[in-house]
Amino acid sequence: MQYAILNNKRIVPPSSGFLAICQICGQPVRAYCGELNMDHWRHVKLSNCDLWHSHETPWHREWKLLFPENFREVVIENENEIHRADIKTPKGLVVEFQNSPISSLEIRVREKFYGQMIWVVNTDEFKENISFRSVVTRELSNLRRYDHNPDIEAPEKKMKKACQPISDRIDRNKIDIFTLENRIEWIQNSISTIDGFLNDMTQFTRDYIKNRNRVDTDYYNPKILNKLNILKTRIDAFNRDIQVLDKNINEIDSLENYPLQNLSEFKIINNNKRVDPKNYREYRAIKRETLLQIFPELISFNSEFQLKAYINNPNFVLIKDFRLQLQNLNDKKMFLENKIIKRDKTVSLIDELFSKDATDYFISKKVKFQEELITIKKSLPNLEEKRISLSFELDICIQNAVTEAAKSNKKFEDDFKKKEFSIMKEYKGLYILYWKYRHKSWDAASQIFFLEYNGFLYQLQRDVLFKKIEKKEFIEFVTNN
User: Fold this and answer.
1) HSE toward the beta carbon, residue 233, CA cutoff 13 A
2) Domain residue ranges of the chain, discontinuous segments joined by +
3) Which whole-number Å values give the CA distances from 125 to 98, 99, 129, in the listed order?
């Protein structure tokens, strides 16, 4: 204890061995002073004058010395029970500095005895078991984590969204210009192709009629083409027939003439397979051994049956007069050639008609292309002006978007600072207590409760929420209450 009674006055230990009286029990106490121990009074004989009394530590003494002397170690009597309060103000507020563990029952008993009181608990013995975290720091961290400005996070995205319609119009304008430029190129190539056709319609007509699919044009006149195809098909048929006739004539001409003057119109038949019994009157049979005599043995035929009897007879050679057959063949050939000539003339006329029709078609198409080319070339400058206008509009939109983003950012930053200030103001000095292993005995405390931690006091607000204050503030609070 720091005080004892001498001559009805409270005194501190003046020197070691000095005697005085205990404030509570009235028993002798002796002063102990020195460099190792704090100056204090101790009962001469063991005494249980105050069961709540515990060994006083430098921590207790340092706290008591922060208050006026008349506040320290004030004796309180209540219902025949006497205890010594660490601090009691003239207005009756008691402060208990608790350094050692205490049970929840003792906490309730002391609070009932003292009434209006404050607990100050030293955490040095269990400070590794607790930690305080600032509510301001937590709330500011949450603010920075969740309170985002979309303009700050993605200004390009917002700018793109604001100016996207203009960008889309610019893209469509580019597509329109590109389409027209391609169309101009295609029309110019088409006009060049048409000029090529017009410069040599004869070659075009020939190539087209020969194989229309190989000619790069959309010209098509089915009526003329059908006529030409029919005529050419017939001419081809006539030519094939003439080839057959020529083959037959050549085969006859290749046969050997009979050497005798009086039978020179006959030709010797070497291949009996070529004999046609139906024309038996045109054939003669000469006995082979008289073949070269002036007067050969000659047999004429009166029926097919008679001719057949000599066809395979080795003693006879068959001869035939081909003059009538050759005349018929040449007549047929001439007839077909005349037909071909007539149809060739018709083909020439149709070719001319085709050439004229194609020429008219290409000239008409060239005129249309030229008109379209003029129209397109007139519209290109408008599209180009529109492109320039849209580019200018886009630049303005981007500038406006940047300006709006800057305003939005400034407003957000200002609002954010206000929120930060509001958090720092609202949660100033508030801390959350975190326990590794919670001391539940102090849950019984119902009076004002402080923890001293790392040189600061933390006042319990509720549950695990504490308010940090300076010792100076605490002393002023206690002194004024």
Assistant:
1) 6
2) 1-49, 216-357
3) 11, 8, 9
Contact (Cβ atoms closer than 8 angstroms) between residue 94 and residue 116: yes
* Tens digits of residue pLDDT in 254-309: 888 888 877 888 888 877 777 888 888 888 999 988 888 888 888 999 999 998 98
Beta strands across the sheet bearing 4-6: 9-11, 4-6, 19-21, 28-32, 40-43
pLDDT by residue (tens digit) across 209-267?
Answer: 776 655 557 776 778 778 878 888 888 899 999 999 999 999 888 888 888 877 888 88
Q: Please give the radius of gyration of the chain, using alpha carbons only, rounded to the nearest integer.
A: 68
Question: Cα separation of 120 and 109, whole Å?
Answer: 16
What phi-psi label fits residue 10: left (phi over 0), alpha (psi between -120 and 50 degrees) or beta? beta
Tokens 């007139």, residue? 378
Pairing of strands 40-43, 72-78: unpaired
> How many helices (H) and strands (E) are present in the chain, helices listed first?
10, 18
For residues 321 and 327, give the distance between their C-alpha atoms in angstroms, rounded to a whole number: 11
| pLDDT tens track for 372-424 | 999 999 999 999 999 999 999 999 998 888 888 788 888 888 999 999 999 99
CA–CA distance, 63 with 67 (Å, rounded to integer): 8
Q: Which residue, 441, 399, 390, is CA-closest to 175? A: 390
125 in Cβ contact with 455 (< 8 Å): no
